[in-house]
Design goal:
The complex is a heterotrimer of chains A (103), B (164) and C (553). Chain A has one domain (8-102). Chain A has three helices and five strands. Chain A has helices spanning 41-56, 80-87, 95-102; strands at residues 8-14, 20-24, 27-29, 60-69, 76-77. Chain A has a five-stranded antiparallel sheet. Chain B has a single domain (2-163), classed as TIM Barrel, CATH 3.20.20. Chain B is globular. Chain B has 164 residues and is α/β, with parallel strands linked by helices. Chain B has helices at 36-41, 56-59, 80-90, 108-113, 123-128, 131-138, 155-163; strands at residues 2-5, 8-10, 28-32, 45-50, 66-72, 96-100, 118-121, 143-144, 153-154. A seven-stranded mixed sheet of chain B has the order 2-1-7-6-5-4-3. In chain B, strand 6, helix 4 (108-113) and strand 7 (118-121) form a beta-alpha-beta unit. In chain B, 44% of the residues are buried. With 553 residues, chain C is of the alpha+beta class. Chain C folds into four domains: 6-109, Sulfite Reductase Hemoprotein, domain 2, CATH 3.90.480; 133-292, Sulfite Reductase Hemoprotein, domain 1 (2-Layer Sandwich), CATH 3.30.413; 303-399, Alpha-Beta Complex (Sulfite Reductase Hemoprotein, domain 2), CATH 3.90.480.20; 415-550, Sulfite Reductase Hemoprotein, domain 1 (2-Layer Sandwich). Chain C has helices at 6-27, 33-41, 65-78, 101-109, 142-153, 226-240, 251-258, 260-273, 276-279, 283-292, 303-316, 318-327, 355-368, 391-399, 431-440, 444-450, 512-526, 533-540, 543-550, and strands spanning 45-47, 52-56, 62-63, 82-85, 91-93, 127-128, 168-171, 185-191, 197-203, 215-222, 328-330, 336-341, 352-354, 373-375, 381-387, 415-416, 455-458, 472-479, 482-489, 501-502, 507-508. In chain C, the strands form four sheets. In chain C, strands 16, 17, 18, 19, 20 and 21 form a six-stranded mixed sheet that branches. Chain C has a five-stranded antiparallel sheet with strand order 1-2-5-4-13. In chain C, a hairpin with a 2-residue loop joins strand 18 and strand 19. Classes of the chains: A alpha+beta (103), B alpha/beta (164), C alpha+beta (553). Chains in contact: A-C, B-C. The A-C interface holds A 13, 15-20, 55, 58, 61-62, 78-81, 84-85, 88-92, 94-96, 98-103 and C 26-29, 33, 47, 49-52, 80-82, 95-99, 345-349, 352-357, 401-403, 405, 420-422, 426-427, 429, 431-432, 435, 481, 483. Chain A: This is DUF2849 domain-containing protein. Chain A: It holds the Pfam family DUF2849. Chain A: It comes from Paralimibaculum aggregatum. Chain A: InterPro entries: DUF2849. Chain C: It comes from Paralimibaculum aggregatum.
Chain lengths: 103, 164, 553
């Protein structure tokens, strides 16, 4: 039996900046809350295709699909790795503030 | 396929003989490794294409009959051919040496340093990477640290010259 | 310390310019991502979980104050105000933009630094002993050899597209602080039959998914033969190493599959055949490099007065006394010590330092350590030449920036890879695990009571956190979407190297600090007087630890 489809968004990294980005209606955005959500396998294929085109056009790097839950309204990745990535930074206090606190 | 050497694009002078194709009557032919015996018996001016798992020592006995050797690079990331080229030169091969496959302009300097004379690249690579890129990349680093390889000046020798 | 001459400077400048062109060609589409990726990696640029990451080479871990200040400047100008010192004696920045990287490389070149070959399937930054030139028992400063290798391996035409990465480490002491037995090639400076220094060459060590301790390739190699011999070893690897599976492409697999005798036979045959003189560095070049590594002029001190003053301050300041005991090591010059600046504050991210901390370390090194700093593979910083009489001053300056943690070699001096918080390859978090363990063992007296204990944490099977050779190793994996941590015991990265043994099934993220505590308590209960954790494990074996961990499971 085929695995039940889970909603998905397309993510990649911005070629020039490197940031994690998500495909939205208006192009690529930093905030996953604005990402377009595919609710069927066909929609997911189309979204990924748009990502592949953007990569060929040298806008983004490495597009792929991420499974998300929609319980809170906004898409939240199911995998921890993707949640950390969507958060945009480590799960602990980092940078000078975090380092100074530890010290 | 496009051929580029240190002067820029050049004509392909080596017709490659496909599997099952008969050898030509005369002139030049670039043959696969498994046709070597047959080719050696002919009077042709010979080029030999080598797959990347070739042991360079095995080719040494035939150097006298080979005017050209083509070393296969299945991808630009598979760098076995650099050592094959270098070994062939160290073992005394003096003919034309070609790197065949989707190598990239950024590797041209390394290929020349390992003793290659030319590259034979697929059209797709040639389309994106114009001859100017090959020439400019080959000149990007004036002096390297290594010695005992081809043309490029060595920093070690430059330092020695300064001391003398 | 080595200084660039005009040739080194021109080389790095051209390489930097070349990378600038490569970025331009990538953005223009002349290079595809597949083609650009190995090129950027060879210049230290990764694409990580959140952003690009730039890894900068700190050859054999040696750094000048002006270079450290440049790293601070880069952290503030192009990153987020901090950097991460790695297990390979390098530094990496986690947030640079691709478009800024050429400017960063220009800035580095201005202080004789670069990011050449800090990643990619090429010969990586050669690592060494952080006490090089300082350790009393050392035969010869290993950095002379490491610098020779750095130059020889830089953009080596033949070895820049190897089957896999290639790491070389050099030690000049019998006591191995450079972990040479877990490197692709490990080099130990030894004395030959006539007493002259030469090399013992090891090959095929490495961690990752198939860990191996290196085997001896050559018991004694005359010094002049170093580069030709390395060239022969690399050529055999490049021609015959596996290309069909990236997990079997390291030289350790070739050596394992051929057997060390057959690999050695092939290397010796190539070495005998090749034009060695063309590859070897001329003697005057070796002498030129060696001169840079002469021991710096260390002013003669009134060692008795210095020692008395230090004792007096230690008596007044117990925390200083603890730091003195734990974080300073003997120097070959009487009256001097090598100081370890711990980048392992309790609850911090191992190896992270802020720009401000970098500047303080640079200042202290300038005034009190003959202008030298070292990065260690334990992710700490060493000030190699501190006069005993200056130790209290140094401690106070470090303390002001939170750099005075007195835990070198103790349970909270944890090595950890960046893990799932930063790394695109990771399968589990490692830094927060290190933080939780450090918090659990925060009490300084308890740490000292436990004694020497190295905990090493990797967030995936690639083992950047060297977990196989931690006295206690922790490997984080993903088990059906849940982080699971496997524990190994008895690993060792020194001259008595060994790979740790797995205790059994893994543990959940929240369980790890408790598990480590049970291991440590078991050791404390069973140890003989003065017996270290490693010695006790080697005597006791796994059984009592297994019992303590799994009896109630």
């Amino acid at each position: 039996m085929a695995k039940a489809f889970k909603p998905q968004v397309v993510t990649a990294n911005d070629l020039i900046e490197g940031d994690s980005v998500f495909l939205a209606r208006s192009g690529w955005v930093r905030d996953i809350a604005e990402a377009r959500v595919a609710r069927t396998a066909e929609e997911a294929d189309l979204l990924l295709e748009a990502g592949v085109v953007a990569e060929a056009e040298n806008t983004v790097v490495g597009p792929y699909l991420v499974e998300v839950g929609l319980e809170t309204g906004a898409p939240v990745p199911l995998l921890r790795r993707e949640r950390i990535r969507a958060e945009g930074g480590p799960t602990f206090a980092y940078a000078p503030e975090g380092i100074a606190r530890a010290a | 396929m496009r051929i580029i050497d240190a002067t820029g694009p050049i004509d392909d002078l080596w017709p490659r003989i496909g599997a099952g194709e008969p050898l030509p009557e005369a002139g030049r032919a670039l043959v696969e490794r498994d046709r070597l015996g047959e080719a050696l018996a002919s009077g042709l001016e010979l080029g030999l294409h080598l797959p990347p798992d070739t042991e360079p020592a095995d080719i040494e006995p035939h150097f006298g009959r080979l005017a050209m050797i083509s070393v296969g690079f299945p991808s630009f990331a598979d760098g076995r051919g650099f050592s094959i080229g270098r070994s062939l030169r160290q073992r005394g091969f003096l003919g034309r040496l070609r790197a065949s496959g989707p190598v990239i302009a950024d590797q041209f300097a390394y290929l020349l340093e390992c003793g290659f004379d030319e590259v034979a690249i697929p059209e797709e690579v040639a389309r994106r990477q114009p001859p100017e890129s090959w020439l400019s990349q080959s000149a990007a680093i004036t002096f390297g640290y290594q010695r005992g390889i081809a043309g490029r000046g060595s920093i070690l020798d430059q330092r020695r010259a300064r001391h003398d | 310390m080595y200084r660039y001459d005009e040739f080194d400077a021109a080389f790095v400048a051209e390489r930097t310019q070349q990378f600038r062109t490569q970025v331009k060609r990538r953005l223009a589409g002349e290079l595809t991502e597949a083609e650009f990726k190995p090129l950027r990696l060879m210049n230290g640029v990764y694409l990580q979980l959140h952003a690009y990451m730039l890894r900068i080479a700190i050859p054999y871990g040696t750094l000048r104050p002006d270079q450290m200040r440049m790293l601070a400047h880069i952290a503030e100008r192009w990153d987020r105000g901090y950097g991460h010192f790695t297990t390979r004696q390098n530094i990496q920045f986690n947030w640079p933009k691709l478009k800024d990287v050429p400017d960063i490389l220009d800035a580095l070149a201005s202080v004789e630094m670069h990011a050449i070959q800090t990643s990619g399937n090429c010969i990586r930054n050669t690592t060494s002993d952080p006490y090089a030139g300082v350790a009393p028992e050392e035969i010869e400063d290993p950095r002379i050899t490491a610098e020779l290798i750095r130059q020889w391996s830089s953009l080596h035409p033949e070895f820049t597209f190897l089957g896999r990465k290639f790491k070389i480490a050099v030690t000049g002491s019998e006591h191995d602080r450079a972990a040479i037995k877990i490197h692709d090639i490990g080099i130990q400076i030894v004395r030959g039959p006539d007493g002259a220094p030469g090399y013992r060459v090891l090959v095929g060590g490495g961690l990752g998914r198939s860990p191996f301790i290196a085997k001896e390739l050559r018991g004694f190699l005359p010094k002049a033969d170093l580069l030709p011999y390395l060239e022969a070893a690399l050529r055999v690897y490049n021609l015959h190493g596996r290309r069909d599976n990236k997990y079997k492409a390291r030289i350790k697999i070739l050596v394992h599959e051929l057997g060390i005798e057959e690999y050695a036979r092939q290397v010796e045959a190539e070495f005998a055949r090749m034009d060695r003189a063309a590859v070897a560095a001329p003697a005057e070049e070796v002498a030129r490099i060696a001169a840079y590594f002469a021991l710096p002029e260390l002013p003669a001190r009134d060692t008795e007065a210095d020692a008395a003053e230090t004792r007096r301050m230690a008596a007044m300041e117990p925390e200083f006394a603890a730091w003195l005991e734990q974080n300073t090591a003997p120097h070959r010059v009487p009256g001097y010590r090598a100081v370890t600046v711990s980048l392992k504050p309790i609850g911090g991210a191992p190896g992270d330092a802020t720009a401000e901390q970098m500047r303080v370390m640079a200042d202290v090194a300038e005034h009190h350590s003959a202008g030298e700093l070292r990065i260690t593979h334990e992710q700490n910083v060493v000030l190699p030449h501190v006069a005993e009489g200056a130790l209290f001053k140094v401690w106070r300056a470090l303390r002001a920036e939170g750099l005075d943690t007195a835990n070198k070699g103790l349970v909270t001096d944890i090595i950890a890879c960046p893990g799932l918080d930063y790394c695109a390859l990771a399968t589990a978090r490692s830094i927060p695990v290190a933080q939780d363990i450090a918090n659990r063992f925060a009490e300084p007296r308890r740490q000292r009571e436990i004694g020497p204990l190295s905990i090493k944490i990797s967030g995936c099977i690639n083992a950047c956190g060297h977990h196989h050779v931690g006295h206690i190793g922790i490997l984080g994996i993903d088990k059906a979407g849940v982080e699971s941590y496997q524990i190994t015991l008895g690993g060792d990265a020194t001259e008595t190297a060994s790979l740790g043994d797995r205790t059994g099934p893994g543990f959940g993220y929240d369980e790890v600090p408790g598990v480590i505590e049970r291991v440590v308590d078991t050791y404390i209960a069973l140890r003989e007087p003065g017996e270290t954790f490693l010695a006790a494990y080697r005597r006791l074996g796994m059984a009592p630890f297994k019992e303590a961990l799994y009896a109630d499971h």
